[in-house]
Structures are given as C-alpha cells and as structure tokens.
Amino acid sequence: MQLTVVDHPIARARLSRMRDERTDNATFRAALRELTQMLVYEATRDLEVAEEPITTPVTDTIGFRLAAPPLIVPVLRAGLGMADTAHGMLPESQMGFVGLARNEVTFEPEPYMASLPESLVGRAVFVLDPMLATGGSLVNCCTLLTDRGATDITVLCALAAPEGLRRLEESGLPLRVFTASVDERLNENAYIVPGLGDAGDRQFGAV
Ligand SMILES: O=P(O)(O)OC[C@H]1O[C@H](OP(=O)(O)OP(=O)(O)O)[C@H](O)[C@@H]1O
Ligand SMILES: O=c1cc[nH]c(=O)[nH]1
Ligand SMILES: [Mg+2]
C-alpha cells in the first residue's frame, strides 16, 4: 500500500482549522473543501492524459485531457463534504455512493447504501472519507469496490490513525492512501487523537 502525507503548509493550516473545537460547521466545511482540493491535486498527479489537437487564437497545437477520469466514491455522510470539490476538479468523472455508519459500541461499520456501477474492471476509483480511524469503514467500502473488479483504488482522507493504516495494509487491498496527517493513535472510543472529533457531526450536526 502506498501512503502519501500531504503536509503542505496550506494543508496544515486548513487541517488545524478543522481540528479546532471552536470552528463552526460552516467554517469546518469550507476548510474541508479547501483541503480536498490539495488532496485531489496530489492524488491526480499521475493520471494518464490523452493528446488532442486544439487551436488557440494564435495557432494549432496539442492539448491534453484526462484519458480516463476516475470514478469518485464519497463515503456518506462525512465524505459528502469532499464530493463536490473533487467533482469540480474532475468534471468528467462519474460518481458512486457508499453509506456506512460506524456502530459506536462495536466500532464496526454498518452499511446502509451502495450505489455503484456493476463493473469496475479497468476503472480507477477515488474514495473520499475524511476519517480513517480503525479502518473498518474503508476496508468495507474498498471490498465493495474490489468485489466489482476494481484493482486501482485511491483513498483520500483528512486524517489517518496508525491503527487504521495498518488494517488497510493488512487487508491486501490494492490501495493508495493520501492523507493530510497521520495522527498519534486511537482513544478508548476509537476516535483519532488528537483528531478533530466526529467529521460527520462537525459538518452536518449530531445525529
Ligand atoms: O475507520 P473507522 O473506525 O471505520 O471510522 C471512520 C468512519 O467514521 C466516520 O463515519 P461515521 O460512521 O461517523 O458516519 P458519518 O459520516 O455518518 O458521521 C468517518 O467518516 C468514517 O467513515
Ligand atoms: O475520530 C474519529 C473516528 C471515527 N469517525 C470520526 O468522525 N472521527
Ligand atoms: Mg460520524
């Protein structure tokens, strides 16, 4: 599994705003959108481009377009806050949706929806979820994708815990992970420390 930590100064500043308990829901969402831009920018660096002839106001030349824009898959709820930004940067991409809620007693994810293309053979997939804690939710989501034939999955998250990264690594799933920080650890409630709290609640309110 390939891990990239996007620790650009602007990314660190946005992440700090998200961590701060005084940050209100609207400011948290704005900071997550801005952080998502940086994660997408880094994660798309190696995407294949196709050449196409174009004409500028001055002359004919060669232009470029993405050869195969990845499928974007936000994990509901918290990943929804990254979806529009990622789609804006990859406007030709298709979007799928996975809904998971972590059981806060067992810490296991409980799936409640999946809306994905039947086959993902030969398609790159970008999974969006700001939080990688125990890793249970992302293993569940990425297994749904590999069950459909995906072999090229990129996970974009704001924060990752070492425990979750280990679980993803041990899953053997074909993954690359881009995160703005690898935090210290999980606490007894499987929350990331120092973390930022519940990313869904911080954006949309407590359920
Ligand atoms: O790595 P894990 O231990 O599985 O935890 C991470 C998951 O927890 C959060 O979702 P949550 O279940 O709180 O749902 P929500 O987005 O609706 O708040 C987060 O967005 C991840 O999906
Ligand atoms: O710290 C955590 C752990 C799981 N889910 C969150 O939203 N935050
Ligand atoms: Mg939540």
From TrEMBL:
Reactions catalysed, as given in the entry: UMP + diphosphate = 5-phospho-alpha-D-ribose 1-diphosphate + uracil
Keyword Ribonucleoprotein (UniProt): no
Alphabetical UniProt keywords: Allosteric enzyme, Glycosyltransferase, GTP-binding, Nucleotide-binding, Transferase
SUPFAM superfamilies: PRTase-like (SSF53271)
Entry-linked Gene3D superfamilies: 3.40.50.2020
Family to which this protein belongs: Belongs to the UPRTase family.
Its job: Catalyzes the conversion of uracil and 5-phospho-alpha-D-ribose 1-diphosphate (PRPP) to UMP and diphosphate.
Full protein name: Uracil phosphoribosyltransferase
Species of the source: Modestobacter italicus (strain DSM 44449 / CECT 9708 / BC 501)
